[in-house]
Amino acid sequence: MKATITKQCMGDRNCNKLCPEVFEYDEDQLLSIVKFNNIPNEYKALVRQAAAECGADAIEIIED
Ligand code: SF4
């Protein structure tokens, strides 16, 4: 699974709070970033939840 964050991110950091192991806020770009190229199995469920909860619909997931 891969996850990317689009420029639609409004920076509320919900994904960062939900899964800080995967999502990080980039203070320079003013949007969240994904720390992994491929999401480790143990975080996949949280990443799907973060995408579903993202109010800006900014988290895009590509399943394997
Ligand atoms: S939950 Fe969505 S809008 Fe909020 S910081 Fe994460 S990607 Fe950005």
Question: Could you walk me through the main structural features you see in this protein, from its secondary elements to its overall organization?
Answer:
With 64 residues, the chain is of the alpha+beta class. It has one domain (2-62): Alpha-Beta Plaits. The chain contains two helices and four strands; from the N terminus they run βαββαβ. The chain has helices spanning 14-18, 44-53, and strands spanning 2-5, 23-26, 31-34, 59-62. It has a two-stranded antiparallel sheet. Strands 2-3 form a two-stranded antiparallel ribbon. A hairpin with a 4-residue loop joins β2 (23-26) and β3. The longest helix has 10 residues, at 44-53. The termini are close together. The model has no long low-confidence stretch (mean pLDDT 97). It binds iron/sulfur cluster. The site of iron/sulfur cluster (SF4) has 14 residues, from α1.
**Low confidence ranges:** none
Portion in strands: 25-35%
- Examine the coordinates and then state which fold CATH places here, giving the name of the CATH topology: Alpha-Beta Plaits
Strand order in space, largest sheet? 1-4
The assigned structural class equals alpha+beta
Summarize the helix and strand pattern as letters: EHEEHE
Chemical compounds bound to the protein: iron/sulfur cluster
Taking the sheet with the most strands, its summary is: 2 strands, antiparallel
Give the termini separation.
5 Å
How many runs of DSSP E, i.e. beta strands?
4
